[in-house]
Amino acid sequence: MPLKLSLKPHEKFVLNGAVVQNGDRRGVLLLQNKASVLREKDIMQVEEANSPSRRIYFPVMMMYLDEAGASGYHEEFIRRLQEFMGAITNPSVLADCVNISKLVLQREYYKALTLCRKLIEYEDQRLGNVGTGLSASREAG
Question: Fewer CB within 10 Å: N-end or C-end of the chain?
Fold first, then answer.
């Protein structure tokens, strides 16, 4: 089943490590086979990994975008996940952390990123951040 991306004018995304930008008009892209794709809104810069949940998201994102170099990010991911889990008591969030770890071990990085976004939302709610999701660090800056 192909992946259909509906793109806004000038929207950027990463496709197998290459940054691609849409032209002046809305566009649709169909990917017919497996590829690592992240939209601009889901891409985190290293300086945006400025909270515990975002420090989990970042190495998972890097494993997804650079699967050949994933082992180099794995140790950072484990350390950050352990730190986060040591500070959390919410059973649902802890279950998400365990599931993220399982998904990473299965190399299901995109699915792990989806759960990481839930951790970011939880953290933003608990800390009272004005923004939510990945964009919160961009709005705060």
Answer: N
Q: Which amino acid is residue 124, in one-letter code?
A: D
Tell me which residue of 74, 54, 66 sits closest to 117, measured CA to CA. Answer: 54
User: Which H or E run includes 14?
Assistant: strand 12-15
Look-up of token digits 């950072």:
76
Say if residues 132 and 49 touch (Cβ distance below 8 Å). no
In the chain, the amino acid numbered 85 is: M
Is residue 28 helix, strand or coil?
Answer: strand
d(CA 39, CA 68): 20
What is the model's pTM?
0.84
Residue 130 DSSP one-character state: S
Instruction: Match 């566009």 to its residue by tokens.
Output: 27
Contact assessment for residue 66 and residue 17, using Cβ atoms and an 8 Å cutoff: yes
What would the pLDDT profile of 7-50 be if each residue is shown by its tens digit? 999 999 998 888 889 999 999 988 888 888 899 999 999 999 99
